[in-house]
Amino acid sequence: MDTKIKILHLEDVPTDAELVGIELKRSKLSFERIVVDNKIDYIRAIDEYKPDIILSDHSLPSFDSLEAFEILKKSDLDVPFILITATISEEFAVEIMKNGAADYVLKDRTQRLPNAILNALEKYRLEAERKKYMEEVIANESLLKEAENIANIGGLDIDVKTQFTKWSPGLYHILGLDVGEMEPTFRNFFNCIHPDDAFKVKADLDNALLNLYSISIDFRIKTYKTGDIKYLHAKLLIDRDKYGAPVRVKGFTQDITERKLTEEKIKEASETQAAILNALPPNIVLINEKGKIIAVNESWKKMALFNNLGIPNYGVGYSYMALSEKAIGVDNITSIKIEKGINEVIKGNTKEFVMEYASLGESDWFMIVVAPLADNTHKGAVILHINITDRKLAEASLLKSEANLRTVFENIDLAIVLADANLNVASFNSNASAAMLKHFDKKLRVGSPIISHFPKDRRASIKQHLDLVKEKHQVVAYETSTISENGELEWHDIKWVGVVNHNNENVGVILTFKNITEKKNIESERENMTADLAQRIKDLEQFNYIISHNLRAPVANIQGLAMLLADMQPGMPESLETLRALGISVDNLDKVILDLNQILQVRSQVNDQIECVSLPLLVDEIAVGIEQMIVKNKVEIITDFDEMDELYTLKSYVYSILQNLVVNSIKYRRPDADPVITITSKVKGERLLISFKDNGRGIDLQKNGSHVFGLYKRFDWSVEGKGIGLFMVKMQMESLGGSINVRSEVNVGTEFTLQFPLSVKWNAPVTVR
C-alpha cells in the first residue's frame, strides 16, 4: 500500500496491545495505530481519527465488542471491524460475522492478523466499487427512464415469429400503467387504441407488413385506468429476412397530446379571431407589404354596399390607397398623410399611425389606426376606421362643462385636489396650490402621488384615510392643526371623498380643506367663556359656602361677645375674659379672610407668559427651598423625567403644586420609615402624566375619598394644618386645563397623578379659571 493504514485498536490490557503491535511490525505492514481502552475515547477516535480499520477486544470493563460494533454501525464511518479475543464460542463467532464484522482473530494466533487486515480492507474496497457500479447502473436506467418520461416517448419490440413482445417503461407510462402492471403483448397494446381509429391503424399495419420497411401513423388511445384520451405518433421499423418476410417489428411511440391540443386551440383561436374581427364595429382592412387588400371584415363590406362604392370583391386584391379617397371620403391632402403613415408602419419605422379626420361634405368624424401585422413571417398592416362622431360631440360638450366647472373650481373658498384611481394628482385649484406651498413647502404637480405632498409623519394616517375612502366608500372628515410661519396655530377642516362610477367602483378621490382658524378661535373663546362662567358659578358657590360656614361662627361669636360687653361695667373681671375671647374670634375671622384672599387670587387674571419649564430643575428648586425640612426628616426624592423633562406651562403654578405635595408627603410621613418620594413623567396622547408617589401614612379613600380635595377637609389631626393645600392643588391644576387623581392605601403610601395638556400655544398669556 502506498499510504499507511490507520488502525484504531480497542484494548484495555496494555500487554495484549503491545503483542498486537509487535506482530503488525513483524509483518512489515505500513500502518499507524492509536490504542483506546474506554467508550468515550473510542467514540471520539471514530469521529476525529477516522480509522481505516478497527481492531477490538471482546470484553472490556465498561462495555464489550458487540456494543463497540453497534457504535461503529451508527456512525458515518464504513470500515472493517475485526474482533481480537482470547476465546469465543463458535455460535458467537457466527453471530458477529452475520452482523457484519469482517473477521475475528484469537489472541494466541495473532500471526494471521496482518493477512486478516489486508483481506478485510480488500473486501471492503471491492464491495465499495461494486456499490458504486450498481449506483451508476441504476442512475443510468433512471436517467433513461426520466428521458422517456420527459420526451413522452415509449418503445415496443415484437418478434413476429414467436410474438414475444417487450414494452419500455416509457410505453407503460404513456398507457397510464406502472411498469410490469400488464403483460406486454401487442394485443394488449392494440386494445387501448380508440375504437374510431382502430380499423385504420390495423389496415395500415397489415399493408406495412406486406411490403414496407417502415410506417408512421397518428392515432388516439384510451388509457387503461382513467380512460383519458391521448394522441400518439408511432413509427414502426420492420426487419425482414432474406426472403422479404417480416421477422421483427420495432416501434417508437410519442405522446403528442399536448401538440394536438395546441393545434386545435390555434385553429379555434383563429376561428374566434375571425369571428371577433367580423363582430367589431370599425371598418377593418388587412393589407400586405405592397399595399394590396388581403382581407376585410363584415363592417367594411356593409360600408361598401351602403355607400354603393362598386368595389369588386369589396376591394380584396386591389390597392388600398387607390380606393381610399372614394372608400373613406377624404381629400387629397389627407389621403397623402394617410398613405405616408401606412408606409412608415409597413417599413417598421413606426409602431403605430393614428389620425383623426372629418368626412368630406358631412359632419361625421373618423379615426384611422394603422398597426403592423402581428406575424413575423409576413409584412403588412391592419387598418381600422372608427366612427368617433359621438366622441367629438361629447368632447366639445365636456370642454364647455369643464370651463364652467373650472370657473366654480377657482372661485370657491375651498382648497380642492382631485386624484385618480391610482391616487395620483389629476387636478387642483389655486387655493390648494397656495396652501400646500405655505404649510408643507410642497408644489402640487399633476401625476405625482397625492400622499407625497404631506410630511412623512402624517403619511401613515393619511394612507389609512385613503384606504377607508377607496375600499369602504366612506367619507373621512376631521379637523387638524399646523403651526404657521409666525408661530400661530392654524386649523383646517379636511374631507376625503371617493368618486365612484355607475358600477360603484372607485375611480378617484377628492380632497378638500378649508382654513377654519377664525371659527375655531371663536369656538375656543366661547368654550373658555362657558368654562369661565361655570367656574365662576362654582367659585360663588364655594365662596357662599365659606361665608355661610366659615365666617358665620366667628361673626356670631363676635356679635355675642359684643352684646355681653355692652351689659358689663368697665373693670369687671368677666370683661377681660370676654375681651380675650373676642380677640380669638377676630383672629379666626382674619384667618378665614386670608384664606379667601388666597383662593380668589388664584382665580384672578394671570399675566404670566407660558414658558418652557424644566421639570428636573423645578424639583431641585423646591428641594433647595425646603432643604432644612428635607434634611431634618431624611427625605429621599427620586425623579425620572426620561420620557419628557420639559413642559410649556405656568411655572409658578407647577412649582406651587409640586411643593404642596412634597410638603404634605413629609408632614404625613410614617414614623417607622424615612420618607421616599418618587416623581416620574409619561406622555399619553396629548397629555403629560406626572406621577407623584410617596410611602407615607396614606389616606382611607373608602371613608374619605369624596373629600380629599375639599376645602378645610382634614383626615389626620396629629399634624398641624388647615385643610386648604390639596384644595389649592386641585384648583391650580384645573386652572391650567389639567386634572388630578389619587390612589392611596393606609400605611403603604399615596400616589397623585397630575395630567397636563400638551397642546398649549407658546408665548401666549393664559387666563386661568
TrEMBL record:
This is histidine kinase. The modification 4-aspartylphosphate is found at D57. PANTHER family: PAC DOMAIN-CONTAINING PROTEIN (PTHR43304:SF1), PHYTOCHROME-LIKE PROTEIN CPH1 (PTHR43304). Keywords: Kinase, Phosphoprotein, Transferase. It catalyses: ATP + protein L-histidine = ADP + protein N-phospho-L-histidine. GO terms for molecular function: phosphorelay sensor kinase activity. The lineage of its organism: Bacteria, Pseudomonadati, Bacteroidota, Sphingobacteriia, Sphingobacteriales. It is an enzyme of class 2 (transferase). PROSITE patterns: HIS_KIN (PS50109), PAC (PS50113), RESPONSE_REGULATORY (PS50110). Transmembrane segments: none annotated.
